[in-house]
Amino acid sequence: MAEIIDRISELPAHIIYDILRKVGKNHNLREEAQTCILSKRWSSIWRWRPDVIISKYNHNGLKNNLENFVKSVDDSLLPYAEHNLRIETLCLCGLVQYPGLTSHIDRWLNLAIKHNVTSLKIYSNSMKNLKYYSIPDALHAAKMLTELSLHRCNLEVEDSTNKLQQLINTCRLIRNLSIDDCKGIHNLCVAGLVNLEELELLNCEGLENVEIQAANLRVFAFKGAPLSKYQKTREVQPLPCTINILDGYKTLQILKLEAATLTDQEFEYILSKFSALEVLELTRCYEIKKIKIVSHKLKRFTLCYWRNLEQVDLLTPNLREFDFKSGKMCMPFSTMVTSNLKQANIFFYKRGSYVDPDIVYGNVNTSWYNNLQDFVQKLDYSKGLVLVILCRQYESILIYEDPSEIIIPPTREIELCITNPLMYLENFAYHLIESDPKIISVVPCTESKMVQVFHETIMRYRKKQNKELLNEVINHKGKDAVEDDGTTPFYSWLKSTPLIERITNFMF
């Protein structure tokens, strides 16, 4: 019998570690550790890995056994201290909520700083946790930091500055900076970070002014404190947080703004400065009433959860993806030049949980309905786009492969998806079937393959799920597919339209 030679363990250490890191992605150290039993060399490389992740999720019973947890972490860090091993990344996950760990977190942080840590991440990962971790002054010595992510940290100091400002002034190599739900920041000047490419400032209550000067900034995301934290009687006041971006005009590609109470003029001014924008996301920016975007570079636009928006003009011929969510029965799009659109999601939802019993299927705002109908008919379907309409209230899906005669179901809760499924038609069908609808209706085009693909996919899905075979009904010339008794309002509406003569229904 030939001798078995372990060639994998002969791989260079950095390749083995890269394999382990992929196995243990999302901080799953258990799977990563299990992989290390393949050989002593793999185990050694893993124990001395440069990425140190200290997470409560990899230790059962942490709350009742802090002493054992601390000992376990100290033992795992001992080789780094004894052999002066490098620590590139330190991730502290879910530890802030335990007051008894604060001094130990400080120790572990100091060790990483002494070993020239380049990436530091502190996460709370607890929605119920009201505690903040006070960043120690020792962090100012982390001169090699290129990535810094802080969540639920206290950055207050006694004087008028804050610890984040001090970090920015001393850690000049930072490339990625993320501050989420931290307190103690009122005024922030991000300057002097010549390598800064990504900046996130999220949910920092009390932040009043941000000034950014970063010539190589590529991504900026801002999320203001939720409006619910303000008094309900609050009128429109000067911005809770003033954002002033003084540089990066030609490098900023991704801009995400949420709960940023910008006025029309302020948003227009910001937009006019950044000619390289490829991704723009606006969420809960309630003060904006009119949006006009003229760009040949914008590829993705998201507009979600707005109240006062009246008009949107999109002159974006290279836009590929578009997402729109609203609880308001209004279609504000006056102009939309999107000849290269590949994907669009439009979602209307009811605001609040109350359902008016007097509202019946078909009782919708006429202006909104006509504008929505006009909107979907203006889109260019010549490159394989299909329109998918989901009525989740009635568990119904309507697919227009043939866009020559589109009729929108008259309901207030509706979700539209415009996509090109030709390259992944089976996956497209399976994804819709998995949503467990009662009916899928297809308006096929000439020489359509979609109906056949849906039929075959549903049969395989039913067989896999050990369910009864599909009840497929094909309607021609207005013949009823099912008895009227027990049908949904959606299907009753469908039978009243000219579509019923050429539609294919799959009943579940």
TrEMBL record:
Membrane-traversing stretches: none
Superkingdom to which the source organism belongs: Eukaryota
Pfam families for this protein: LRR_At1g61320_AtMIF1
InterPro entries: At1g61320/At1g61330-like, LRR_At1g61320_AtMIF1, LRR_dom_sf
All residue ranges annotated as the At1g61320/AtMIF1 LRR domain in the record: 142-227, 247-346
SUPFAM superfamilies: RNI-like
PANTHER family named among the record's database cross-references: OS02G0105600 PROTEIN
Protein name, entry field: At1g61320/AtMIF1 LRR domain-containing protein
Biological source species: Solanum commersonii (Commerson's wild potato)
